[in-house]
TrEMBL record:
Protein name: SESN2 protein
Cellular component aspect of the GO annotation: nucleus
InterPro entries linked: Sestrin
One GO BP annotation of this record: negative regulation of TORC1 signaling
Organism: Furnarius figulus
Gene (UniProt): Sesn2_1
GO terms for MF: L-leucine binding; oxidoreductase activity, acting on peroxide as acceptor
Domain of life: Eukaryota
A Pfam family per the record: PA26
């Protein structure tokens, strides 16, 4: 059975710690919705599919999968080096190196790579909270 932040985690944490659920949810939403609508040199791009693929891939790494999501999108949108980077940062942050960081998205701005880090760390936190709750 699906156990999601939206349906279960948010309400449970609010019962245990009033108002904390709202603060966490706002934090997750700010990072998830953060976008400049650019990818490398292209402007006016809808990045929602990419952000969702990254978020769901992080959850997948931690064993959380959603029936209503097509995980084929992850393979289409996330190159192998990016997947390696995401898994390393999410699971083994002490093994993250500059080499791994520079190997994915070579033509992208550092601000876009920082956004990847924000996405994966918040998705990791949400996955950990789902397990804890």
């Amino acid at each position: 059975q699906d156990y999601t932040w939206e349906d279960h985690g948010f309400s449970l944490i609010n019962r245990l710690y009033p108002d904390v659920g709202q603060l966490l949810d706002e934090k997750f939403q700010v990072v998830y919705n953060l976008t400049y609508n650019t990818i490398a040199m292209h402007c006016g791009v809808d990045t929602s599919m990419l952000r969702r693929a990254i978020w769901n891939y992080v959850h997948c790494v931690f064993g959380i999968r959603y029936d209503d999501y097509d995980y084929g999108e992850v393979n289409q949108l996330l190159e192998r080096n990016l997947k390696i980077y995401i898994k390393t940062v999410a699971c083994y942050p002490e093994k993250t190196t500059k080499q791994i960081y520079t190997q994915f998205w070579r033509h992208f701005k550092h601000s876009e790579k920082v956004h990847i880090n924000l996405l994966l760390l918040e998705a990791r936190m949400q996955a950990a909270l789902l397990y804890a709750l």
